[in-house]
């Protein structure tokens, strides 16, 4: 418990270059979560939602003040707010229609946030979202359950926005 409370993870540059760019989150981080959701539209539509950070407030109204320095491109920096948290981030993987991953820093906590899109035979997309967070004392106010809830909401928001852009494939949940 004490070790995880003070775990700060690798340096941000290492996290960016050796984890995020190699399809990994920090498996040793004390705060981690993964979620998967089926989006009733093709990967290109899901990608259009992800690749528009200035529109992320449509996914989650707590997101705002997004400022891109060099567009959505590998190693491009951007800043944004998630609620009261100011976050400085950098895109690590920008693979249109397949993956968007970034690293970020906020209040001393470092994160890797991955989105992987997998096209399905019926024209829909499986969206996998994974994130790890580490920083001294992070465990005092954040844990895996809270992050899981946040990622589930984020994925559901992406699904809602993407399906609104392309309602013809919207999936009906079986009852």
Indicate how many domains the architecture comprises. 1
Mean pLDDT: 93
- What is the CATH topology assignment? Alpha-D-Glucose-1,6-Bisphosphate, Chain A, domain 4
- State the distance separating the first and last CA atoms: 42 Å
Q: Radius of gyration in whole Å, from Cα?
A: 16 Å
* CATH classification class: Alpha Beta
Overall 3D shape: globular
Biggest beta sheet attributes: 7 strands, antiparallel
Low-confidence stretches: none
Q: Assign a percent range to the helix content.
A: 10-25%
- The secondary structure category is alpha+beta
What's the name of the CATH homologous superfamily? START domain
The count of helical stretches stands at 4
Beta-strand residue fraction: 25-35%
| Spatial strand order of the main sheet | 1-7-6-5-4-3-2
Q: What is the N-to-C succession of helices and strands?
A: HHEHEEEEEEH
The second-level CATH architecture is 2-Layer Sandwich
- Beta-strand segment tally: 7
Properties at a glance:
175 residues, alpha+beta, single chain
Task: Describe the fold and architecture.
With 175 residues, this protein is an alpha+beta fold. The chain has one domain (2-169): Alpha-D-Glucose-1,6-Bisphosphate, Chain A, domain 4 (2-Layer Sandwich), CATH 3.30.530.20. Helix content is 25%, strand content 35%. The protein has 4 helices and 7 strands; from the N terminus they run ααβαββββββα. It has helices at residues 2-6, 12-19, 43-50, 144-165; strands spanning 31-39, 63-68, 77-82, 85-95, 99-106, 109-119, 125-134. Strands 1-7-6-5-4-3-2 form a 7-stranded antiparallel sheet, sandwiched between helices. A hairpin with a 2-residue loop joins strand 3 (77-82) and strand 4. Helix 3 (43-50) packs across helix 4. The radius of gyration is 16 Å and the shape is globular. The termini are far apart. The mean pLDDT is 93.
